[in-house]
Amino acid sequence: MNKTLTSREAILSVGKEVIAESGLRALNMRNIAQKCGVAVGSVYNYFPSKSDLIVATIESVWTEIMHGSIGCTPQLDFTENVLSLFNSIQMGCQKYPSFFSLHAMSVANFDKNKGRDAMNKYFEHIKNGLMKALNYDTKVKKDAFSEKFTKLDFVDFIFANIISLLMKEVKSCDFLIEIIRRTIY
Fold it and tell me: Are 134 and 140 contacting, i.e. CB atoms less than 8 angstroms apart?
């Protein structure tokens, strides 16, 4: 085997290629080492376990997906921000087929805490962006929210529905957008 040098970034890049071509289930230490042209031990130098490799690769995919998102844009209303987010994640799911629906289950098989922490990190980032977008939206009715119907609960509801649509591989969030419009405008 060619003992070429590699880096954490190179390993993650190959890991993302494997996910894009064959899905998350095909990600393993031996396959990554072979594709990097290094010994399996070299991969273990950067990732002490298969679960560490999987979690780091998932984080790398999420970073790429979120990098493609325009994020919270104050010039857009809340519904436009929701649509942008949905489209960005959906495009990421097209590049990495079945990634979104399988990654939580796959990580859970290896290390629930690491997988949950990685997933929650990106989910919290997304929800914080949605909350900022909601707070920036000047079109929202002044009486849209109350003690029983809070902005936080609304953002959690919208996020849960985005996740549900993506898990079901629904191609449009138009119905969710209509619910938002009828509720807060």
Answer: yes
**4-16 exposure pattern, b = at least 16 Cβ within 10 A, e = fewer:** eebeeebbbbbbb
How many other β-carbons are positioned within 10 Å of the β-carbon of residue 89?
Answer: 23
Average pLDDT estimate for 39-51: 93
Q: Which amino acid is at 51?
A: S
* Cα–Cα distance, 98 to 91 (Å, whole number): 12
Residue 29 identity: M
Q: Which two tokens stand for residue 184?
A: 């807060």
pLDDT-derived band at 109 (thresholds 50, 70, 90) equals low
Q: How far is CA 165 from CA 4, 74, 148, 174, in A?
A: 43, 25, 25, 11
pTM for this model (two decimals): 0.78
Alpha helices in 23-150 (DSSP H): 29-36, 40-46, 50-67, 78-95, 99-110, 112-136
% of the chain at pLDDT higher than 90: 55
135-to-88, 91, 125, 130, 138 alpha-carbon distances in Å: 21, 26, 15, 9, 8
Q: Which two tokens stand for residue 141?
A: 């009715």
φ, ψ at 66 (rounded to 5°): -70, -30
* Cα distance between residue 40 and residue 46, in whole Å: 11
